[in-house]
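Q: Please design a sequence for this.
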């Protein structure tokens, strides 16, 4: 992973930064109906936000991302695109749309590294991280900012829905997200302990983020690392289901494999890194324990034990593969019906069963590599 000294970074910023966007008259006057606050407080909320977008070779998607940020009901003061030494036209496209563009002298090696490169330019009270392949619902920022009404909350994350739902892998991820963000996430939010403040769409208090040194590069899952660090320092994190974003998910096995490899290793790395602190936080301890148990034991059962029992004992053991389908289908179909997507969800459910087994395969591989072989994943690979 590449590093840069302060002088090199600052000179790169001076050389590559376009004009900083000033608040428009619309953003100054914007007073969301959902917030009934004093005029001064309301003005601070509408203007005091910087959106940072790390981007490496994202020419195909960066324009949609920027336009969706610019079209928000609650505009940000500034949009910073970190063109992480792209070899395509990412920077030129972003600059042509009026965003502030900065470019390091060489690739930073990870999303966390790119985001940290932008931190010296952020002088707003809040900072929002959005992936370069992600678009927002028109009121996404306005809805998500409401999650920081409580001063003890350091970060808030939104609801994630794949932008494209066509291939087997996109359909599997669509069901996975509907289930996770309709079932697991609200329960976690009730205890103010979402397992992760998703890196594709989260907002932070800038001062708290800086207190934690920005996004750490010690794992390949910087968003989970930061979330668990917030909890251990006494800060809260909230999930705002009304704030919706639409990332581009892997459309084939090659890219899905890269993403799942990174996610699996990132989870295991964070367990190794934070286990002492996690043990001191009851709900987070229980959530991580269940996730780790599911990752290890359930994966082994699904991939090895059940097939062996079906072969050597009775085929009836194959029914175990579908026993929990209703538990997944009910919340998924409930949310899909609200979105007018019942048919899409029904057609996509079989894809989720495939993705679940592939998930299990990558999780076992990560557990073996990280815990047994002591070979941690260090290379950050994009999943699309």
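A: Design:
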């Amino acid at each position: 992973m590449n590093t840069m000294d302060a002088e090199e970074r600052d000179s790169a910023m001076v050389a590559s930064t376009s004009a900083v966007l000033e608040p428009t008259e619309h953003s100054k006057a914007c007073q969301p109906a959902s917030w009934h606050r004093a005029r001064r407080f309301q003005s601070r909320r509408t203007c005091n936000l910087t959106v940072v977008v790390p981007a490496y070779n994202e020419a195909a998607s960066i324009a949609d991302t920027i336009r969706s940020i610019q079209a928000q009901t609650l505009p940000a003061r500034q949009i910073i695109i970190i063109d992480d030494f792209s070899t395509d036209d990412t920077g030129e496209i972003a600059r042509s749309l009026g965003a502030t563009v900065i470019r390091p002298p060489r690739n930073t090696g990870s999303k966390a590294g790119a985001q940290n490169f932008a931190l010296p330019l952020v002088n707003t009270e809040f900072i929002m991280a959005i992936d370069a392949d992600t678009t927002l619902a028109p009121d996404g920022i306005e809805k998500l900012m409401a999650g920081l009404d409580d001063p003890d909350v350091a970060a808030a994350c939104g609801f994630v829905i794949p932008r494209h739902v066509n291939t087997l892998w996109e359909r599997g991820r669509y069901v996975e997200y509907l289930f996770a963000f309709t079932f697991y996430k609200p329960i976690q939010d009730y205890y103010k302990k979402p397992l992760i403040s998703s890196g594709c769409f989260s907002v932070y208090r800038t001062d708290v983020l800086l207190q934690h040194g920005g996004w750490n590069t010690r794992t390949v899952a910087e968003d989970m690392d930061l979330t668990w660090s917030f909890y251990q320092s006494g800060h809260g994190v909230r999930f705002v289901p009304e704030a919706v974003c639409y990332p581009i998910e892997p459309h084939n096995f090659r890219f899905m494999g890269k993403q799942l490899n990174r996610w699996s290793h990132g989870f295991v790395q964070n367990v190794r890194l934070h286990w002492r602190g996690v043990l001191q936080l009851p709900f987070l301890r229980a959530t991580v324990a269940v996730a780790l148990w599911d990752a290890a034991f359930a994966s082994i059962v699904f991939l090895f034990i059940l097939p062996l029992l079906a072969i050597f004992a009775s085929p009836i053991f194959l029914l175990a593969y579908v026993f929990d389908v209703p538990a997944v289908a009910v919340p998924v179909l409930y949310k899909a019906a609200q979105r007018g997507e019942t048919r899409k969800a029904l057609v996509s459910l079989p894809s989720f069963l495939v993705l679940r087994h592939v998930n299990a395969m990558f999780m076992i591989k990560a557990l073996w590599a990280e815990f047994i072989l002591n070979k941690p994943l260090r290379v950050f690979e994009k999943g699309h």
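Q: Thanks. Anything notable?
A: The chain has two domains: 6-249, 277-372. The longest helix spans residues 282-312.
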